[in-house]
Amino acid sequence: MMNEPSDQMFETAGYRVHHWVGLGDGDITVLHREPFRFAWLGTQVVTFVFLICRPVESFSQMLDDYPALRKFAGEHKQTWLPFGFQCGYALLPIYMAQAFPEALIESTRSTYKKRWCVFHTPSLLNMSTGRVVTLDRPYFWGCLYRDYTRTTIHEVGNMVFRRKDAVNGQD
To answer: Rounded CA gap, 108 and 123, in Å?
Structure first.
């Protein structure tokens, strides 16, 4: 990925970093952590943030990536809790490009596909402006984890964008 943030920056923020040649996109940086909180009714949310440097034209293109993301999560989960029993996945792909179609931005803000024990929330990071677009429509399914997933997406997006500016000498 061009201007790829350093692994150390993400490790300092509490992530394990994986490099994955997946989805036909070359090297994808994957950030991984597995928080457990009693406020989540004693649930562990195995979180994977996928930094995907490619433009997408439609929400269905992002949904097409789901099976590969889900498989990666299943192969790299480290908790002893079995998936589905007080353990779910947050799959948070962030697609990075210089611009995105307005229809895709609107779909990203409003479309949520319910899945069993998986919170798949595709997001967009405009690398020209630093603007992060993610689901902002309230939904009942997974509402306990909504603040966590939104905060995670925005924090990672901001880290990536700040790092891009520093690499380009704008910091």
So the answer is: 6
| Token digits of residue 154 | 């925005």
pTM of the full predicted structure?
Answer: 0.85
d(CA 139, CA 67) in angstroms, rounded, equals 23
Query: Which string of DSSP letters, residue by residue, matches 85-97?
Result: SSEEEEEEEEEEE
> If you ran DSSP here, which 8-state letter would residue 160 be given?
H
H or E stretch at 51: strand 43-53
CB-based contacts of 82: which residues, under 8 Å, 6+ apart? none
Query: What is the reported pLDDT for 55?
Result: 83
Query: Which residues touch 164 (CB under 8 Å, ≥6 apart)?
Result: 3, 5, 127
Among the listed residues 138, 123, 142, 154, the one whose alpha carbon sits nearest the alpha carbon of residue 52: 123
